[in-house]
Amino acid sequence: MSQHDLYDLIAYLKHAPPVDNIKGENNIPFFTKVLLQLGAFGNAFHVEDINHSAPYAIAPTAAVSNKYGAYLLEITGCKACHGNLLANCLNKTWKPFTLI
Question: How many other β-carbons are positioned within 10 Å of the β-carbon of residue 71?
Fold first, then answer.
């Protein structure tokens, strides 16, 4: 993630109004725990695996382009579940959305 995008995300989270609800304990389903232990989600959940001294990514210009789409896929972690080609989608009836 670029430094600018990270700062934007932090600013958004700091200014978002609090949610009025009671947070219960985390209940991770058994099957999800198995997948986590098998590494099905890569290292997406292990802060120890993050290189905190790595340089920030350079974000491409926000546009409808393959380059910007690839950047968004990389920073959001979609490939952790869906694979590098985004082909492992469990919902086979999924269709891409269209912009209005």
Answer: 20
- Number of neighbours of residue 92 by Cβ within 10 angstroms: 5
Residues across the chain? 100
User: Tell me: the pLDDT tens digits for 30-49?
Assistant: 888 888 778 777 666 667 77
pLDDT tens sequence across 10-28: 999 999 998 888 878 878 8
Query: What is the b/e burial string over 14-34, where b = at least 16 CB atoms within 10 angstroms of the residue's CB?
Result: eeeeeeeeeeeeeeeeeeeee
List the one residue out of 30, 42, 25, 26 whose CA is nearest residue 76. Answer: 42
d(CA 42, CA 77) in angstroms, rounded, equals 9
Query: For residue 12, how many C-alpha atoms fall within 13 Å in the half-sphere facing its CB?
Result: 6
